[in-house]
Amino acid sequence: MNNGSTGQMVDRTSLDSVVIRFCGDSGDGVQLAGGQFTDTAAHFGNDFATFPDYPAEIRAPRGTTFGVSGFQVQFSSLDIYTPGEAVDAMVAMNPAGFKVNIDDITPGGIVIVNEDEFTKGNLAKCGYVDDYNPLDDEALTTRFTLIRVPMNRLTRESAEGTEEGVKVVDRCRNMFALGIVYWLYDRPLDATVRFLENTFTKGKGKPEIAKLNIDALKAGYFFGETAEFPSQFRIPPAKQSPGTYRRINGNEATVLGLITAAQKAGKEITYASYPITPASNILHGFSKQKNFGIKTFQAEDEISAICAAIGASFAGDIGVTGTSGPGLALKSEALGLAVMFELPLIVVNVQRAGPATGMPTKTEQADLFQALFGRPGESPCIVLAPGDPGDCFDMAIEAVRLAIRHMSPVVLLTDAYIGNGAEPWRVPNVDDIEPIEVSHPTADSYAEGEFMSYARDENTLARPWALPGTPGLEHRMGSLEKDANTGEVSYDPMNHEIMVRARAEKVARAVDTIPDIKIAGAETGDVLVLGWGSTRGTITTVVDSLQKSGRSISSAHLRYLNPMPANLEQVLKGFKTIIIPEINLGQLSMLIRSKFLIDTVSINMIRGRPMSVKELTENIEEVMDR
Amino acid sequence: MISEKTASLPVYKPKDFASDQDVRWCPGCGDYAALTAVRKALASLNHRKEDYVFVSGIGCAARFPYYMSTYGVHSIHGRGLSVATGIKLANPSLQLCVVSGDGDLLSIGGNHTIHTLRRNIDLTILLMNNKIYGLTKGQYSPTSEVGKVTASTPMGSLDFPLNPLALAVSTGCTFIARSIDVDMKGFDAIYKRAMNHRGTSLVEVYQDCNIFNHQAWFYASQKDTRPDNTITLEQGQPLIFGTDRDKGIRMNGCSPEVVKLGEKYTEADLIVHDETNRSLAFMYSQMAYPEFPEPMGVLYCEPNKPTYDSLVHDQMNEAINTQGSGDLQKLLMGNETWTID
Ligand code: SF4
């Protein structure tokens, strides 16, 4: 946007990638500003990855460090896989945000602050005492390009003549800040203007609020021109393969994947869930799509949620329940029931940092063992884990496909990072997605022979999915051990062993239709970095750059955790050293060692944050240089 | 479609509802009576066998589904109602009956009982109340009286019992009834009404566990005790009871009072049963032996409250009517897209 430009000469610097972080109080609207910046970058054709980072408290006391909310986005003219680490530019809406985030800014980086909020009182609230104001601290101001902006005052000025109260006006400060950043990165305002009009004018019938926000946005933009920035920056569009794209986060992709799978199977979904961070927006997502034959049930607790999903599957829907680690723990007995019933059931676990309540809004990968083993008895489930937000779509479809094919519960392990983090996603053509085959027997299917509720398909070992309401196939499902054919209660010792082995074998047979694991890089060499889940972006970035520096290193990513792809052992054997980075204390590492008797080197960072590219690079180099 | 189905409804006999499994309750257990009565009742109800689903949790009574030749689910401890909820949401045309005991439904599954009752999901709950844990060999249950000496309470239990019917009244349950395993005629009538009721029906059945809690209900179950210690509620009829039907319940101020008929009081002074009156239902739930005869029959019935399952489907249909049935490609596109050529 160059309307009304002063014509004054500005330097323009071209960059490949930039990392920006917006931060402030959780009520400051930084998530919205970050989301808008991302949308604009997306429209411009940049690749991007986002990392929203919020406190567990909804409105922690204003101005405190534990109430700080942040939104980080990396946008680039290259392919990128992570939201980045060293922050090039930060917008701090208050001193607490400044304090929490300033150490992540690269030296020489740009720091835009709302100086009106750096009052004595606010400084004290976040622990700056004795009249210390970091904005006056030369040690800091010389390290960064500090742009002090009286945002409160300027936003109010932009609203001159309005009838709205000052509180309402102040809420537009995030748009003022966003305007500055739009100028700094030479971005057009139109996508955000359109968004504000859609939200306030059309959505809420409040054109005056839309106008205030748009005026603040424009005022911020013009302020950018006059502020003393060292340069304006340009990040050219990335080369992306042709197609239609949208921004998507993992939880959205999970919802869309499950709905797509249900449609492809000609089924309705019953989504039963109990609200839990960071999985709740899956429930919200489904609730909005009832016209796709979606029933949502907000149950009284986690146990009721999974049991209702099991009941729904028994009656012929695709039963789905979503949760996070603590909820999965509560569901474990019932998940065992689904194993016993041999019904299709999808359990989405958006992992968070544990144990117990842990850090509800922060990410972790420490529920792998829980998903695999956290149930009484021998209780095998299919376990899948997408590697990035868009992959949640594909793996959700896989979850439904395998659940139906093998009449088995499937645990889909995502996490807070990919659940909330967004990236560009090329929208698939629905006609290109394979249908999912479902069959329900009728009495005619047994014209010769007798219906037996646990007679298995010889390939998939699935038992028949006979639905209540079908004449002639009345049968009882029970949590007690069953006769291997008739499904009636059986305490026979050998029968139990046959059933235990059959349940395990059935899950193992899923390997027949899961794809081989792919290697990024040479198929043999010194080091293979093996990952699973949300570390994919970090690992890809690290291994790419180590390959470019001439190292003998490849990477592979496991999306199927149980069963694992058929070629995995062969792949592992092609390398001298297997490095497994995880956001846990080495769960996949332990599995690989015990399954294949292959040694592994674990690299573990468990901080509630995505794994750091810099640190992982250093750690891998250290292993390679030993 | 439904009428077509009903038109061709086969003629059932009670034994058509019996599975080929051996019934394994202890001889003399009150559950037998309920099983026989349920099979008999189903034979005269207007649904096809394949449309019934019996669901349970864990416990002696929870083995019930295995003994029915309908569809059935024997789930895990306390969770029968949740499984049944999911079944009903997926297919509202199924007829759901949940059979479980006092431990299952009121202790480990208490939360689900509360929330099922308040949601008014269209299903029938048979609460087989024997005031004891049978399957785990005789610990006191949430309905056991204070001071109960059991394996886990050798010096007597300390906690006060839960009153399931009072719970049902307070959670908004739309059909509340009580029966006893020795009165299968009464049970038959109640059970049929419960199954035909649209909404959640709670039928408490006083059930004798003759192994671990024999005689717990003797005050209400014996020929010589029943007439004086129970009272059968009949819609529109005055509350009369007693071997000689010479006693009644009248309102004394705000409280019920047992009175003798014939001298000072006549039938006209007595409370007339009105099953649509929730306050009366609560009063009945509080009437307990030995002070009062315990009410049997339908305490409360509210036939027109919408059921949760129908509301869920209404909402789904409304979404389809207003937004059209889902366009998957449009859904995947979302609100904001951009194109790379
Ligand atoms: S233990 Fe009691 S309740 Fe259980 S089957 Fe025996 S008599 Fe019936």
Brief descriptors of the model:
heterodimer, A: 626 residues, alpha/beta, Pyruvate-ferredoxin Oxidoreductase, domain 3, Rossmann fold, 4 domains, seven-stranded mixed β-sheet, six-stranded mixed β-sheet, 21 helices, 23 strands, 37% helix, globular, disordered N terminus, B: 341 residues, eight-stranded mixed β-sheet, three-stranded antiparallel β-sheet, 12 helices, 14 strands, 20% strand, binds iron/sulfur cluster
Explain how this protein is built:
The complex is a heterodimer of chains A (626) and B (341). Chain A is α/β, with parallel strands linked by helices and 626 residues long. Chain A has four domains: 12-231, Pyruvate-ferredoxin oxidoreductase, PFOR, domain III (Pyruvate-ferredoxin Oxidoreductase, domain 3); 246-432, Rossmann fold; 439-513, no CATH class; 519-624, Rossmann fold, CATH 3.40.50.920. Helices cover 37% and strands 21% of the residues of chain A. A seven-stranded mixed sheet of chain A has the order 11-10-12-13-15-14-21, with helices on both faces. In chain A, strand 19, helix 18 (536-548) and strand 20 (553-558) form a beta-alpha-beta unit. The two termini of chain A are 53 Å apart. Residues 1-7 of chain A have low confidence and may be disordered. With 341 residues, chain B is an alpha/beta fold. Chain B is 31% helix and 20% strand. Chain B contains twelve helices and 14 strands. In chain B, strand 5 and strand 6 (139-140) form a beta hairpin. In chain B, helix 2 (31-43) crosses helix 7, helix 4 (102-108) packs across helix 5 and helix 6 (164-170) packs antiparallel against helix 10. Chain B is globular, with a radius of gyration of 23 Å. The chains are: A alpha/beta (626), B alpha/beta (341). At the A-B interface, helix 1, strand 9, helix 10, strand 11 and helix 12 of A face strand 2, helix 3, helix 5, helix 11 and helix 12 of B. Bound molecules: iron/sulfur cluster. Residues 25-26, 29, 31, 60, 130, 134, 209-212 of chain B line the site of iron/sulfur cluster.
